[in-house]
Q: What sequence folds into this?
């Protein structure tokens, strides 16, 4: 008996692994972060989650921006002083009042407008193209609203402070305006992150509008401009204004440049971290899903939540896995019809008409009294009984590395040694015949069967036409096994093999058989000696 697994066994183990892993959950969250919730989350909880994320994120970004702006105005540019050179009500009343009111109004208006634009998702409706456009325009709208509030504040404070001292004009415009641009960019990114679950639903309506989805290059260049370009411009303007106005000492200039550099470094790190996270998360999700597919789990399916090229990557992965699932389904169906070995051999090389000589063992199984069985039972019960009968045969043939070549009504032909070669096909065929008889008597006693086993040289290959052919074996052992199964129907053992087949088996298998009488089979000229299980 061969110690090497057959093609069918290897393919079977792969299919078993696929089945076993099909229920495994994705280790990476569907939207790339646990705080974005699950795919099957209710619309109500999702609304609360998104509203909270947007509000808290915008408040946090604005508070950081206000603190940095205050640091630039009070410490980086100490002369003239916002504490001593202007009325106290301007610095301690008007400025904080505007900051607080802008924070409150901005958070309320942005959150309310966002919820209204995304009401279709809250109500569980299918998105239209207009709804989809609103989803991808919302981060831009939030960024524009933040930029507007900061621009109004920058203009108002530049004018108010400039009325008392013209030297305030470049300081306020530069310090507050610089922070406003950074806050607006951060607001765009955190809003895009918070809306990922809704963006995933919107992408079901089709690809996003390209004008509203800037893409990876657009994101990267925008963040680069803000974290590198704007700070360099700010440092250059600081040096230029100090040179022209001569209102800063060398130490004050150095402190101003140092503060601007640190603020740019911190803000740049945060924005670049958000950008890197937004880009890396979809890739990480795809990589995790690819690992599942590599392990044999074809049930992996990604939620497409990114509107850039990364979303196309996610969508392409889903298309690829769908194709693999369809291919696996066709392969499984093909293998069930023609046999796993034949299907695997057809995949490895293009099948052609013709065959080759092979040494095989053939097992033929035929039900005893099938005509009476069909006439006494309803058709549905006959089919159910035959399925139980054939299930035993298929199981044992596969277990012993054989190929179920064909079903002929209530008869079955199995081949051992083709198309996958076996070291000793006689051992496998004889052992399978003994096990089939034992199991049929125990599991399907209503269907006694005669089993014939023969071995020898056959021609194995594809027979038919180029448009339609099938794999089969042709030769004396096939006919001999069919005739032996007829004798086995009247034998007590229900199994009859040719003595030559038993003699060519291993010593271990021969111990289970005894030689019997010599007979001349129907249609044969030469007598052969029979063998039956001991």
A:
């Amino acid at each position: 008996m061969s110690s090497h697994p057959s093609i069918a066994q290897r393919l079977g183990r792969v299919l078993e692994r696929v089945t076993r892993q099909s229920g495994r959950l994705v280790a990476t969250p569907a939207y790339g972060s646990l705080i974005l919730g699950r795919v099957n989350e209710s619309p109500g909880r999702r609304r609360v989650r998104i509203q909270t994320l947007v509000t808290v994120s915008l408040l946090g970004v604005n508070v950081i921006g206000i603190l940095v702006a205050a640091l630039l105005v009070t410490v980086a540019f100490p002369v003239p002083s916002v504490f001593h050179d202007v009325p106290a009500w301007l610095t301690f009343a008007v400025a904080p009042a505007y900051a607080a009111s802008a924070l409150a109004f901005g958070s309320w208006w942005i959150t309310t407008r966002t919820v209204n634009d995304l009401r279709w998702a809250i109500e569980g409706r299918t998105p239209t193209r207009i709804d989809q456009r609103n989803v991808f325009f919302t981060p831009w709208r939030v960024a524009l609203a933040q930029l507007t509030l900061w621009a109004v504040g920058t203009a108002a404070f530049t004018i108010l402070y400039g009325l008392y001292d013209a030297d305030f004009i470049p300081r306020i415009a530069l310090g507050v305006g610089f922070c406003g641009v950074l806050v607006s960019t951060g607001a765009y990114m955190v809003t895009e992150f918070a809306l990922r679950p809704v963006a995933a639903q919107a992408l079901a309506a089709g690809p996003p509008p390209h004008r509203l989805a800037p893409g990876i290059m657009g994101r990267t260049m925008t963040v680069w401009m803000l974290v590198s370009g704007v700070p360099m411009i700010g440092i250059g303007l600081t040096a230029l204004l100090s040179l022209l106005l001569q209102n800063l000492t060398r130490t004050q200039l150095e402190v101003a440049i140092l503060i601007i550099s640190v603020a740019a470094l911190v803000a740049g790190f945060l924005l670049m971290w958000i950008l890197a996270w937004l880009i890396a998360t979809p890739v990480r999700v795809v990589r995790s899903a690819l690992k599942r597919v590599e392990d044999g789990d074809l049930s992996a399916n990604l939620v497409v939540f990114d509107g850039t090229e990364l979303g196309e990557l996610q969508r392409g992965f889903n298309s690829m896995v769908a194709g693999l699932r369809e291919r696996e389904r066709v392969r499984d169906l093909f293998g069930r019809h023609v046999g796993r070995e034949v299907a695997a051999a057809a995949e490895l090389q293009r099948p052609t008409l013709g065959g080759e000589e092979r040494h095989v063992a053939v097992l033929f199984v035929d039900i005893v009294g099938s005509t009476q069985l069909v006439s006494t039972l309803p058709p549905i019960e006959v089919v159910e009984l035959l399925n139980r009968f054939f299930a035993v045969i298929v199981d044992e043939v596969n277990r012993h590395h054989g190929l179920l070549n064909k079903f002929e009504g209530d008869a079955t032909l199995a081949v051992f040694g083709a198309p996958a070669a076996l070291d000793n096909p006689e051992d496998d065929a004889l052992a399978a015949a003994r096990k089939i008889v034992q199991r049929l008597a125990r599991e399907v006693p209503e269907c006694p069967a005669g089993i014939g086993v023969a071995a020898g040289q056959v021609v194995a290959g594809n027979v038919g036409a180029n448009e339609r052919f099938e794999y089969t074996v042709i030769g004396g052992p096939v006919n001999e096994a069919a005739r032996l199964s007829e004798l086995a129907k009247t034998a007590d053992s229900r199994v009859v093999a040719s003595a030559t087949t038993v003699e060519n088996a291993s010593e271990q298998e021969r111990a289970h058989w005894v030689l019997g009488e010599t007979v001349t089979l129907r249609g044969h000229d030469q007598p052969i000696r029979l063998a039956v299980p001991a």
In short: The chain is about 65% helix and 10% strand. Residues 310 and 502 are 64 Å apart (CA to CA).
